Amino acid sequence: MTAEALGEIAAEIVRCRACPRLVEWRERVAxxxxxxxxxxEYWGRPVPGFGDPAxxxxxxxxxxxxxxxxxxxxxxxxxxxGDLLYASMHRAGLANLPTSVSRDDGLRLRDAYVxxxxxCAPPGNRPTPAERDxxxxxxxxxxxxxxxxxxxxxxxxxxxxxxxxxxxxLGHRVRPRPRxxxxxxxxxxxxxxxxxxxxxxxxxxxxxxTPGMLDAMLERARELAGA
Length: 227
Known about the structure:
Structural class: alpha/beta
Oligomer: single chain
Low-confidence stretches: none
Strand order of the largest sheet: 1-3-2-4-6-5
Shape: globular
């Protein structure tokens, strides 16, 4: 039942055209492309969640990258943020492969699911509050559909805020609202939340987030989930 429900949500996500600015941007990027991917056909649509329907760990990001998920059709796939994330998930035993390059590359997640607050690549990686709110029902429905879910790993402050908003929509009390920090932990209803810096190039190139730091957060999530 869980896999079926998640599949229905994914189909709705892919069809969504609710935010005109994001529709125009994602489709223009898909038409114009970038030089290094000029020979590839871009996905150019909203990107659904991906992973194990029996997951106890949910990893939430901001949105697909313009030439990553918006190109490949899988969240955190085909960009450097995804390179770091899936390598770490593989080391944690949450993925069968250390890389994610396309939707048909054989990658499978174990006890983990990956999603985002916004499902369309936004200009400048900055969704508006209205665009965030339009997309949030997909996230809270995925959370509800992951029946064994125990822990949410929020990659960055935007994902932290979005995940908290989704949990409020599911009827869980969040007072006072906890602030994001790398390593922050909070319990919301039956769920634990762990904060982690986003694996963006800005964070990794400056050393704000290292592979070891990301590994530690995923290991902590597994510990809290009883995985």
